[in-house]
């Protein structure tokens, strides 16, 4: 099956710890890498996870808190040293360019590639990126500053041809593309061979939703409905529910409630506060509501 | 003995690797922490080395290449989250504030402390910081952009009083400060008790020189003459000597030549290029010229 897998590079929150890096992850969709958030140290964890810089062309930044973007300048600088030439596109909310562009101009003035910043409106859910394999849609989140999550939806793949059947009916090459896309085949004497007899269907398209940082918000449910994997921030445990509300964050239990109501297949918790030396308390509280829950962790690779 | 010890937080060069962090180190002088350079990820290694953020008031930045300063904004942001109130002083060459100040203003606008940037002239060797324990002098270096190293010189410590002798001569408390500083004691009947009989001398003042990044430069020798420890960059091995010259860096052997000519007590090599999976080649080449050489490494603590 073609790749659709998530690498966790960092799943801590604002105060860094020796347990977790600040937020960053990479989604590998058919060997194209999409980075989501880029906290300090992201480029190092990217290397540790043995990902390839040359495959990375798009970075999505959810919001402009430092733990989600301080790693950008170091990553951009390193890509320059590695001789990158193709443009790098950063999709983010308004404001980043005011601080990032002067840094690029000063520290990376010899960079042989362009950094394009494309600004989205975090208040609406809209498609901000699309190619033949995937579309990326924003998910308006409820945080202290403008913030959006991202929904990655794989496109329906073409059916796989059955070589024996193609030979049996002696189907000309020019017909094959249409058949893959769903057409039946009509023989010279007018007989219809249905599409389903010539192909096996591709697997269902996969989907991944990233929701961090956010307070508990039921408004996101229609957007993330039924995704294969939901990464939802779970900064706090039940005991710190008031603090979660105050700071625009969620508890693990709230993340699970959203996962349950949105009928997602699997939940991954992340953006852990530095106050919990053991994140299993978060896993336990979430699992009571939504059993198919896992904890994010640096180096974790989740295949969808 | 009062502390004078060096913690290595990062000793790699511009391209980060999974072996080394970019440049940063911390000198602990009598429980005051002085940071030298601050590459990306410094705050994390600071925590790993179990250093205390509250003891850090001065940061010295040698030059404005990203691998020596990209960690500043993350560190400053974290100090704010930890509720720091005292000013943090960054000593550096001109230019840093143009990119750092807008970042602080945008990302750390609620920080409860002030960041002061004090600019030095990297072309001359002059004292840029001084307190009761230590003075810090710049060391003009030879690099592609303006760059200075730093010489930390401990001040002569006061002699230690011998309690038995103080009691024996029944010396009043008001006299003790003077005696510690070198005075003799005169008894009521005019007899002189020499300073040396009342005290034991303090250890000799210690000194540390940081020289990175720099091409081979004999001009630094008079400034670093006889230091207890010299950290000298050794980006390249002999085989890459031409590349060293071209990029304003040194080979390990050149670092050792400087150490030998400056008659330093010990040499530590650092700023290792990513091209050497094993830095022992650098240690071997330097040791042929200057045997008392060690390799820097993340987590290393060197007591002077």
Automatic annotation (TrEMBL), chains A, B:
Zn(2+) 2 binds at residues 67-68, 213, 271. Its EC number is 3.1.26.11. CDD domains: RNaseZ_ZiPD-like_MBL-fold. It catalyses: Endonucleolytic cleavage of RNA, removing extra 3' nucleotides from tRNA precursor, generating 3' termini of tRNAs. A 3'-hydroxy group is left at the tRNA terminus and a 5'-phosphoryl group is left at the trailer molecule. Zn(2+) 1 binds at residues 63, 65, 143, 213. Residues 203-272 form the Metallo-beta-lactamase domain. GO terms for molecular function: 3'-tRNA processing endoribonuclease activity. Binds 2 Zn(2+) ions. The keyword Zinc applies. Its cofactor is Zn(2+). HAMAP family: RNase_Z_BN. Belongs to the RNase Z family. This is Ribonuclease Z. It comes from Dysgonomonas termitidis.
């Amino acid at each position: 099956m073609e790749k659709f897998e998530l690498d966790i590079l960092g799943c801590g929150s604002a105060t860094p710890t020796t347990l977790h890096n600040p937020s960053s992850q990479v989604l590998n969709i058919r060997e194209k890498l999409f980075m989501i958030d880029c906290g300090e140290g992201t480029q190092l964890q990217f290397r540790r996870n043995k990902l390839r810089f040359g495959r990375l062309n798009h970075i999505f930044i959810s919001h402009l808190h430092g733990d989600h973007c301080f790693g950008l300048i170091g990553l951009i600088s390193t890509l320059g040293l590695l001789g990158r030439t193709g443009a790098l596109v950063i999709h983010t909310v308004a404001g980043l360019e005011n601080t990032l562009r002067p840094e690029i101009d000063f520290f990376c003035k010899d960079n042989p590639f362009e950094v394009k910043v494309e600004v989205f409106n975090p208040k609406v859910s809209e498609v901000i990126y699309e190619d033949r394999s995937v579309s990326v849609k924003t998910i308006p989140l409820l945080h202290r500053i403008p913030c959006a999550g991202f929904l990655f939806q794989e496109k329906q793949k073409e059916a796989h041809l059955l070589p024996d059947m193609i030979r049996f009916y002696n189907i000309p090459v020019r017909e094959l593309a249409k058949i893959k896309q769903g057409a039946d085949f009509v023989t010279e004497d007018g007989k219809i061979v249905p599409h389903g007899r010539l192909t096996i269907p591709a697997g269902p398209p996969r989907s991944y939703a990233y929701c961090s940082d956010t307070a508990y918000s039921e408004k996101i449910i229609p957007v993330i409905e039924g995704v294969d994997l939901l990464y939802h921030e779970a900064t706090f445990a039940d005991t710190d529910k008031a603090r979660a509300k105050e700071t625009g964050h969620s508890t693990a239990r709230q993340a699970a409630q959203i996962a349950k109501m949105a009928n997602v297949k699997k939940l991954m918790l992340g953006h852990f506060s530095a106050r919990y030396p053991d994140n299993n308390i978060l896993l336990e509280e979430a699992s009571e509501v939504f059993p198919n829950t896992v904890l994010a962790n640096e180096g974790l690779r989740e295949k969808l």
